[in-house]
Amino acid sequence: MQKLKAEVQIIGINPYVLLPDEVLTELFKQAGKDKGPIQVRGTINDKPYTQTLVKYDGIWRLYINLKMLKNSPRRIGEVINVTIEFDPEQRVITPHPKLIRALDENHEAKRVFDGLRPSLQLEIVRYISRLKSEESVDRNVVRAIDFLLGRGRFVGRDKPY
After folding, report:
1. pLDDT tens digits, residue range 49-67?
2. Is the dihedral of CA 75, 81, 86, 91 positive or negative?
3. Sign of the C-alpha dihedral, residues 26, 119, 138, 159?
4. Strand 59-63 relative to strand 9-11: parallel, antiparallel, unpaired?
């Protein structure tokens, strides 16, 4: 586990911290790769987190969400205590059965879904899986299928590519 202090920065609406090269080098070594998303875990100000380290616009960033740091968008410029290490645990989110059924019933939507990059597939699956009520699931499965067929917005996007 590596320890560091880092300043909370923001890109768009997303708070993040930059990791020093020596921390990144060790994470790449632990993960056995230096490309694609890298699962990490650690603490922020002594509060545990799990997150995915991603490279965006040529820079590796540890995005800091509200679960990780209360009011994180309003804490830009604050220096926080971070521990971080590679997380070897498998993170599998099972698609909601209603989403699976809807995709099985609509071959064109399934074809589009299967052709999406894995991160967008995961975003759709995660969004629907975390909904609390069956009414919300039903409504959002319909929205997801419409989105895949090019008939509306979903997960903040206009098009599925």
Report:
1. 999 998 988 999 999 988 8
2. negative
3. positive
4. unpaired
